[in-house]
Amino acid sequence: MENTSRAVKKHLKRSGGGGGGGGSRFSGGRKQYESEKEEGEEVGGEECDQEAWETLSQSFRDVQTVLDQNRTLIQQVNENHQSKLPNNIARNVDLIREINGNISKVVGMYSDLSGNFSGIVHQRRSGGREQ
Predict the structure, then answer these.
(1) Mapping DSSP to helix (H, G, I), strand (E, B) and coil, where does residue 86 land?
(2) 23/83 Cα distance (integer angstroms)
(3) DSSP helix/strand/coil, 47
(4) Which InterPro entries would you find in this protein's record (predicted)?
(5) Which of 38, 66, 120, 123 holds its CA 20 to 30 A away from the CA of 21?
(6) Structural domain includes residue 73
(7) In the prediction, which pLDDT does 48 show?
(8) How many C-alpha atoms does 30 have within 13 Å on its Cβ side?
(9) Residue 114 domain-assigned (yes or no)
């Protein structure tokens, strides 16, 4: 995840002109998140779009949270399976359904992330004009 975040940040810095009007807003129903501010990093005298970076970073953190939850659920499934107790094995059905639901959630989150990233790139390439 960290390498992906670094690559996204690097692309944002490389792709965009600084002078465009206003902050980036994304459609698609994604919440705008406020998170810790990083020091203003510059490349070629242009600052990275802080709001865009924070939104993408929050998306990666949200995905990681769901993946961590699945890791815990998979461990529980393994423990239940190893116990060979009928009630524990029966409980695995619900746990596996929850894992499957989380995988669907992650797919949706990555789809939103891709749309947000495409929107950022499109906006930067058009000079920050709203379209």
Answers:
(1) helix
(2) 54
(3) strand
(4) EARLY_FLOWERING_4, EARLY_FLOWERING_4_dom
(5) 38
(6) yes
(7) 59
(8) 26
(9) yes
> What are the residues whose beta carbons fall under 8 Å from the beta carbon of 61, sequence distance 6 or more?
none
| pLDDT the model gives residue 8 | 52
Instruction: Decide if 86 is inside a domain.
Output: yes
Q: Give the pLDDT score at 128.
A: 61
Dmax over CA atoms of the chain, in Å, equals 64
pLDDT given at position 95: 98
User: CA-CA distance, 109 to 38, in Å (whole number)?
Assistant: 24
* CA distances in angstroms from 37 to 13, 53, 115, listed in the order given: 16, 10, 23
Two tokens at 27? Answer: 């459609």
Range of the domain at 85: 64-123
Is position 44 within any domain? no
Q: Under a CB-based contact definition with an 8 Å cutoff, are residues 116 and 7 in contact?
A: no
Give 10-residue mean pLDDT values along the chain (131 residues). 51 44 36 39 53 88 98 98 97 98 97 89 75 47
In degrees, rounded to 5, the angle at the alpha carbon of residue 101 between the alpha carbons of residues 98 and 107 is: 145
pTM given for the model:
0.61
